[in-house]
Write a structure and sequence with these properties.
Layout: H1 5-29, H2 31-36, H3 41-48, H4 53-75, H5 85-101, H6 103-106, H7 115-139
Helix pairs in contact: 1-4, 1-7, 4-5, 5-7
Length: 143
């Protein structure tokens, strides 16, 4: 089944929103969720110590993912009023795809993250990035 660009962007929006919800789950469930999601022992210990930084970082990532979801919906024609939709969607697609393939370069900066974390999160970013770029290419003429 071939899906339209608008449909792909709606799927991309849902995937970005799901990633945002997963990040919020870390805040709600605390250190065990940070460990399960692969955030590293340092972040989990900071949560256990009642530090604010993990929550703020996680809320920041959540906010970005929700904005990206809104832009995908705008690209699909479901939501209006956002500026530079095609170029922002191009940037979003680029970030997702870059994150997917650049994980070997990122690993040294986050040594506590497991290999499973890197493979799973990179695979998720690859799928979301491909969905976004597919939708964007098909929607480009109407944006």
């Amino acid at each position: 089944m071939i899906i339209s660009g608008a449909q792909a962007l709606v799927i991309g929006a849902a995937l970005s929103a799901a990633a945002a919800v997963a990040h919020l789950a870390c805040i709600l469930w605390g250190a065990p969720a940070y460990r399960f999601m692969g955030a590293g022992e340092k972040m989990a210990r900071a949560v256990e110590a009642g530090k604010l930084r993990p929550t703020l970082v996680t809320l920041g990532v959540t906010a970005v993912l929700l904005v990206w979801s809104a832009y995908a919906l705008a690209g699909a024609g479901i939501m209006g009023g956002l500026p530079l939709v095609k170029f922002v969607l191009l940037a979003i697609s680029t970030v997702y795809l870059s994150r997917a393939v650049a994980f070997p370069l990122l690993k040294p900066a986050f040594p506590e993250n497991s290999q499973v974390f890197w493979l799973v999160s990179s695979g998720i970013c690859l799928v979301i990035g491909l969905v976004h770029i597919y939708g964007l290419v098909l929607q480009w003429p109407v944006l």
